[in-house]
Amino acid sequence: MTAPAPPDSGSGPAKPLVLTMGDPAGIGGEIALKAWLSQKSQPFFIIDDAVRLKQLSEKLGLGVPVAEIRTAAETVKAFTTALPVLNLALATNAIPGQPDAENGKSIIASITTAVDMVRSGEASAVVTNPIHKKTLYDAGFEFPGHTEFLAQLAKIDTPPVMMLASPELRVVPVTVHVSIADALSNLNENDIVTMATITAQALEKDFAIRGPRLAVCGLNPHAGEEGAMGQEETTIIAPAIDTLKNRGIDASGPWPPDTLFHDAARKTYDAAICMYHDQALIPIKTLDFDGAVNVTLGLPFVRTSPDHGTAFNIAGTGKASERSLLAALDMAAEMATRRSGLP
After folding, report:
1. pLDDT at residue 342 tops 70
2. Torsion over CA of 130, 115, 105 and 182, rounded to 10 degrees?
3. What is the rounded CA–CA span in Å between residue 198 and residue 159?
4. Could you state, in order of their start, the residue ranges of all structural domains in the chain?
5. Dihedral angle computed from the Cα positions of residues 114, 116, 121 and 124, in that order, rounded to the nearest 10 degrees
6. Is the Cβ–Cβ distance between 218 and 254 less than 8 Å?
7. Per-residue burial over 71-80, b = 16 or more CB atoms within 10 Å of its CB, e = otherwise
8. For residue 222, is it left (φ>0), alpha (ψ between -120 and 50) or beta?
9. What is the rounded radius of gyration, in angstroms, for the C-alpha atoms of the chain?
10. How many other C-beta atoms can be found within 10 angstroms of the C-beta atom of residue 37?
11. At residue 228, does pLDDT exceed 80?
12. pLDDT confidence of residue 296
């Protein structure tokens, strides 16, 4: 896999990154505090309940000062001495490990405000902390997840694309948050072509990879074994690859997924287009569980997220790792810099 060219040392987006609250019963607050404490990322501010973060810092013994800000422009100065927080009060006290639908509106408002601030030019990119979908559904949330909600906020016609990225691997699932049965019935040539095309464009624009190479997975064992183990490779996937090639995209396959993710194979492509959720997420989480980043491609703004969930089982214990959040912040900064045309 070709590594993207990083920005010059010391460069970064002109505006700060904005981090969303995520579910306050999860580990989002803890990893935000730890990310600031590491001082290893571009300046960021978080849209969250300032009192909650102060109390959490004290409870965990992190000693992170919290500074309430009123505008994104105050971030850079505040970031040197404290975690900048654009205050958004919760409806009810957040108890670690116990999600509460009463806080659903605040969680959603954090995302909406972050997108508004990026689209207005106040912030350079959105980094989202993990949400708990059932909590939001109970609060009236009508979207399968972050990706679909962000697409609605962006008012885009093309479907957003979920990429999981790490230094070792980039993967894109064509079908995402649906059952295996629905993934099989929903898979079609047009979606493969659309997802792969958006991926190729993003690899060039956001990751500075010229002429990106896409490896397209098969669906069935041994990529169908020439029809002996399934017809989808012949009737759906191969025609999609032909269309991509006719568009000038370097796409190959369909490849048997069980031989596509070892060291030697990964050197032959820049992203793998996978047919369903776990076909994409199992290999990347196995290779780099703490360092992988969730990136939404095809949006008019940059959005990344840690590639893990709310981790309610360890929330409030001090055990959460900030590594994936730091990777998400760094990737967001690099993508925003490339989009802005800065060196």
Report:
1. no
2. -60
3. 9
4. 1-157+299-343, 168-287
5. 30
6. yes
7. ebebbeebbe
8. left
9. 20
10. 14
11. no
12. 94
Whether the Cβ atoms of residue 217 and residue 274 lie closer than 8 Å to each other: yes
d(CA 250, CA 200): 9
Do you find a cis peptide bond into 254, omega within 30 degrees of 0? Answer: yes
What's the CATH number for 168-287? 3.40.718.10
- Cα–Cα dist 272/199, whole Å: 10
**Side chain identity, residue 196:** A
User: How many degrees, rounded to 5, is the angle at CA 336 between CA 331 and CA 79?
Assistant: 75
Phi and psi at residue 62, in whole multiples of 5°?
Answer: -85, -25
Percent of all residues in the chain with a pLDDT value above 90, rounded to a whole number: 78
Q: Measured between alpha carbons, how far is 79 from 98 in angstroms, rounded to an integer?
A: 30
- pLDDT band per the 50, 70, 90 thresholds, residue 236: very high
**Among 202, 196, 164, which Cα is nearest to 335's?**
202
Question: Residue range 143-152: average pLDDT?
Answer: 84
* CA pair distance 128, 114, nearest whole angstrom: 9
pLDDT exceeds cutoff 60 at 308: yes
Q: Which amino acid type is present at position 195?
A: M
Domain range 1-157+299-343, CATH class? alpha beta
Amino acid of residue 68: E
181: left (phi over 0), alpha (psi -120 to 50) or beta: alpha
Same fold yes or no, 1-157+299-343 and 168-287 = yes
